[in-house]
Amino acid sequence: MVERVSKTKYNFEHPAGDYKKIFETVEELSEPLPATLTGRIPSFIRGSLLRLGPGLFEVGSEPFYHLFDGQALMHKFDFSNGQVTYYRKFIKTDAYVRAITENRVVITEFGTCAYPDPCKNIFSRFFTYFKGVEVTDNCLVNVYPIGEDFYAVTETNYITKVNPDTLETLKKVDMCKYVNINGITAHPHIERDGTVYNIGNCMGKGASLAYNIVKIPSKQKDKSDPIEKSKVVVQFPSAERFKPSYVHSFGMSENYFVFVETPVKINLLKFLSAWAIRGSNYMDCFESDEQKGTWIHIAKKDPGEYIDYQFRTSAMGLFHHINSYEDSGFIVFDLCTWKGFEFVYNYLWLANLRQNWDEVKKHAMIAPQPEVRRFVVPLDPYREEQGKNLISLPYTTATATMREDGTIWLEPEVLFSSPRQAFEFPQINYEMNNGRNYTYAYALGLNHFIPDRASVHPSVLLTIVVCPGAQRQTYCLILNAKDLSEIARAEVGVISPVTFHGMYKP
């Protein structure tokens, strides 16, 4: 990357000088926009690329402060008969509707605290503080199918049913009504028959914290809602009674679940007391402790059964599992990790991301560094003596060693590591390879938390790309999966804010 000096002395610019625009508010569209095509859309692409991210970054005079606070905006590129259109709408969550109606932040988000209505009297404000803060339903992270329906999701107990064709908001669903969870991840696993598995923290036996794997069955013959038949299939214990780990995703092979419990913790006592007494947000309640290390849990899938092997490894950050599979009595699982124990979200405040490029780089220099790691756990760890490597797979250098205290220490094989070069937001050929041995994974080459290798901001393979300085600022890019060469692109003359996750709907 070649840096250039701007008119301001010593201020180095990002190659795409307008990169800050991907963190600015945009308007939804009243109707789909036709895209300008370059190349030829493959005939087998007939459907929609759906993506989610923040689209409203302030309400009235009140800004949102964290990257995960902006109100959910759903994007859609439609492919039909070789033509492409682009459309987007805000999801009409309670958080969004009430914010627009009252022209202020009404519900506390990840890093932005909502304060009582200043127009109310002092007694009303006091009781609002006393009863605590409402949990947000701002579903800006991902979208996935349940039965015949589609849901936009965040990481709380609320999911939002949407129409993937019109992008209309249909219904808010509280998962707490059906299963014992406090929140649920935006990265479920979906089996080939449509069965959905997810994980969320919960209150377990004896008022102790735990993590529940939730199963939502596939679409029902009687047309009933599969969510109503949700159930907990297995429970993982928590390493600490009052401090659950932050969970963003989990692994699933054909016969096992893999749960990685990192040292990034939610201080539950602080969480409850802070919200009941004073204004606070989710970020205020996270803490990290390198001494805690990382605990790795496994469980059988059917029937659900926790396997009490004490797998441990060094402290690390984790958001995304790439894939997990079984091989010759071992479970292999690949992770997009971050070195050390510090919470990466500490570096995703919008004020930091909107700084001049030289300041963004300074933050990246001290932030945790990314690394793709492969771990292997033995399903029968007691067949070998203490101190001996328990892993016998010939194609990996990952190790597992039994210690005197009964713990099994895991050392990973590093699949990719380069300073400030992340392999993140991973994708595989999910339908064919999820839970099975695989060859290829694709990801975003994120650098300094903001892509900077070209004047574009992409995701992966069939992707929305944002190019703030171009005449047509947003386009859908179609890449050949074999060599990542460009097949076609469909451009529109509006800018798109940053997006996080999504799916292709045939």
Care to describe what's here?
The chain has 506 residues and is mainly β. It has one domain (19-505). Helix content is 9%, strand content 37%. It has 6 helices and 33 strands. The protein has helices at residues 94-102, 122-130, 268-277, 350-353, 357-366, 430-433; strands at residues 33-34, 36-39, 47-56, 58-59, 62-63, 71-80, 83-90, 142-146, 149-153, 158-162, 169-174, 189-190, 196-203, 209-216, 231-237, 251-252, 256-261, 264-266, 286-288, 294-300, 305-313, 316-327, 330-339, 370-378, 399-402, 408-411, 413-416, 424-427, 442-444, 462-466, 474-479, 486-492, 501-505. The strands form 9 sheets. Strands 16-17-20-21-26-25 form a 6-stranded mixed sheet, with no helix packed on it. A 5-stranded antiparallel sheet has the order 1-7-6-3-33, with no helix packed on it. Strands 2-32-31-30 form a 4-stranded antiparallel sheet, with no helix packed on it. The protein starts with 32 loop residues before the first strand and ends with a strand. Mean pLDDT is 88; it is low at 1-13 and 121-130.
Which short descriptors sum up this protein?
EC 3.1.1.64, 6 helices, isomerase, vision, five-stranded antiparallel sheet, metal-binding, 506 residues, beta-carotene 15,15'-dioxygenase activity, mainly beta, six-stranded mixed sheet, 33 strands
Tell me the overall shape.
globular
Mean pLDDT across residues: 88
Q: Mind describing the biggest β-sheet? A: 6 strands, mixed
Alpha-beta content class: mainly beta
Helix proportion of residues, in percent? Answer: under 10%
Give the low-pLDDT segments. 1-13, 121-130
Rg, rounded, reads 23 Å
Instruction: Find the count of extended strands (DSSP E, 2+ residues).
Output: 33
**Beta fraction of the residues?**
35-45%
Overall tally of structural domains: 1
Kindly report the spatial arrangement of strands forming the biggest sheet.
Answer: 16-17-20-21-26-25
Separation, N- and C-terminal Cα atoms: 37 Å
Number of H- or I-type helical stretches: 6
Main location: membrane
Pfam families: RPE65
Keywords: Cell membrane, Hydrolase, Iron, Isomerase, Lipoprotein, Membrane, Metal-binding, Palmitate, Sensory transduction, Vision
Protein name: Retinoid isomerohydrolase
